[in-house]
Automatic annotation (TrEMBL):
Keyword field: DNA damage, DNA recombination, DNA repair, Hydrolase, Magnesium, Manganese, Metal-binding
Family, as annotated: Belongs to the DNA repair enzymes AP/ExoA family.
Reaction equations catalysed: Exonucleolytic cleavage in the 3'- to 5'-direction to yield nucleoside 5'-phosphates
Stored Pfam families: Exo_endo_phos
Residues the entry annotates as binding Mg(2+): 14, 43
CDD domains: L1-EN (cd09076)
EC number: 3.1.11.2
Domain Endonuclease/exonuclease/phosphatase: residue ranges: 11-104
Gene Ontology biological-process entries: DNA recombination; DNA repair
Cofactor or coenzyme needed: Mg(2+); Mn(2+)
Name listed for the protein in its UniProt record: exodeoxyribonuclease III
Record text on cofactor binding: Probably binds two magnesium or manganese ions per subunit.
Species of the source: Equus caballus (Horse)
Gene3D superfamilies: Endonuclease/exonuclease/phosphatase
Length: 136
């Protein structure tokens, strides 16, 4: 007997900054319109003190890695419609990656959202995955 679990959809978007209220509103509307299970955003440009500005109705689980200088920045948003519990969160202070280990509908899941630098991206990702290997 094959048991098919709940459908999970993941979307990703490079938002190129979320410091404008109008842009945050547009992105929130886009996320609601797409209606995914998980949404990954890159280049949020939010500082740690501004992370509360990223809000989407129906999405209370918003985990972020932010840079003090309002550059880079990544976020993973998880819909309230699913049973998700975070067990481990690993992120860098540069806002270039966040890794979340947890359970989604009682199944183990690891999510990694990466914003790689424009130059040397393959090397950056390779080195990052080596560093995270023990946690994945």
């Amino acid at each position: 007997m094959v048991v098919v679990g709940p459908h999970v959809s993941i979307i990703t978007l490079n938002v190129n900054g979320l410091n404008s209220p109008i842009k945050r509103h547009r992105v929130a509307g886009w996320i609601k319109e797409q209606d995914p299970t998980i949404c990954c955003l890159q280049e949020t440009h939010l500082s740690p003190k501004d992370k509360h500005r990223l809000r989407v109705k129906g999405w209370r689980t918003i985990l972020q890695a932010n840079n003090e200088q309002k550059k880079a920045g990544v976020a993973i948003l998880i819909s309230d419609k699913v049973d998700f519990k975070a067990k481990q969160i690993k992120k860098d202070k540069e806002g270039q990656y966040i890794m979340i280990k947890g359970t989604l509908h009682q199944e183990d899941i690891t999510l990694i959202n990466i914003y790689a630098p424009n130059t040397g991206a393959p090397k950056f990702v390779k080195q990052l995955l080596i560093e995270l290997k023990e946690d994945i």
